[in-house]
Amino acid sequence: MKIEHLVAEIRKKKSFLCVGLDTDLEKIPEHLLKEEDPIFAFNKAIIDATHQYCVAYKPNIAFYEAYGLPGWKSLERTMEYLNADYPEIFTIADAKRGDIGNTSTRYAKAFFETMDFDSITITPYMGKDSVEPFLEFEDRHTILLALTSNEGAFDFQTKKLEGEELYKKVLKTSKTYKGSERLMYVVGATKATYLQEIREIIPESFLLVPGVGAQGGSLQDVCKYGMTKNVGLLVNSSRGILYASAGSDFAQIAAVKAEEIQKEMEHELERYFLS
Ligand SMILES: O=C(O)c1cc(=O)[nH]c(=O)n1[C@@H]1O[C@H](COP(=O)(O)O)[C@@H](O)[C@H]1O
Questions:
Q1: Where do runs of H (alpha helix) occur along the chain?
Q2: H or E element: which one contains 143?
Q3: pTM score, two decimals?
Q4: Residues with CB under 6 A from ligand 1
Q5: Looking at the 3D structure of the chain, how many domains does it have?
Q6: 50 CA to middle of ligand 1, Å?
Q7: Residue 187 lies in domain
Q8: Could you name the active-site residues (predicted)?
Q9: Which of 75, 119, 236 has the most ligand 1 atoms within 8 A of CB, as the residue to mutate?
Q10: Are 115 and 160 in contact (CB under 8 A)?
């Protein structure tokens, strides 16, 4: 998907919500376990109920890999369903891949061609030759981990290397990669106060921002420091939407939660963007 299509969808829906499909058989309503493919049945119900409030879905690949071949089949069915019925929705493979060049090329093929995702999350640790194979794909986007939402982010990402924090090095160095116009970055909502400095390095790039809801990050702070003239934000919530109810009304309650976030986003858009 082209960025301008994503921006148009954000304007139309007045939302930059990404719903994370972290589908866990131990958390989904019990009655779905009788279905032939419980993971897909859950995802389909969530997508049908929430699509009008969000612009992206992010299946976290670990939740599918954990179930082996049936898990991959559920992921494949979810992607086929999204691409056929909701082609305007941006899809993110939260796979956190990255390896030597020829291996990265196979990962890119797996997620961009075989599974037809619009984007993938990538760890930058192995550097240029591990990232550039993903950037060769037209209209596909590579989302580099910059400053993550978890506590462990302080182990390496904020440590100084040659006088500069490692996450800033990641941002600056990645801008020199071939195809860097197709880069986006992960910045955790719990790290919103860093966004001002991040925006000095990457003023326009889209950010995937997880960590609101269950992890406690603030949407208002993220918008205050991170919003660009093209919005430039995709804010993810997974558990806060998916598991708001464990009863037969799970999809309906997920829609209520998604709409609540969309309304907050609309308010923020009016404040910074539409006014
Ligand atoms: O790349 C990610 O999506 C990601 C990066 C990060 O820094 N923190 C983070 O929580 N995530 C993912 O975002 C989702 C957050 O889920 P909730 O905390 O349930 O909303 C999970 O799928 C995480 O793997």
A1: 3-13, 38-50, 62-65, 68-85, 101-108, 128-135, 153-156, 166-174, 195-201, 219-226, 239-242, 250-269
A2: strand 141-147
A3: 0.97
A4: 20, 22, 60, 94, 121, 148-150, 186, 188, 210-211, 213-215, 236-240
A5: 1
A6: 19
A7: 3-274
A8: 96 (proton donor)
A9: 236
A10: no
Length of the chain equals 275
User: What pLDDT tens digit does each residue of the chain (275 aa) get?
Assistant: 999 999 999 999 999 999 999 999 999 999 999 999 999 999 999 999 999 999 999 999 999 999 999 999 999 999 999 999 999 999 999 999 999 999 999 999 999 999 999 999 999 999 999 999 999 999 999 999 999 999 999 999 999 999 999 999 999 999 999 999 999 999 999 999 999 999 999 999 999 999 998 888 999 999 999 999 999 999 999 999 999 999 999 999 999 999 999 999 999 999 987 65
- Three-state SS annotation for 163-230: CEEHHHHHHHHHCCCCCHHHEEEEECHHHHHHHHHHHHHCCCCCEEECCEHHHCECHHHHHHHHCECC
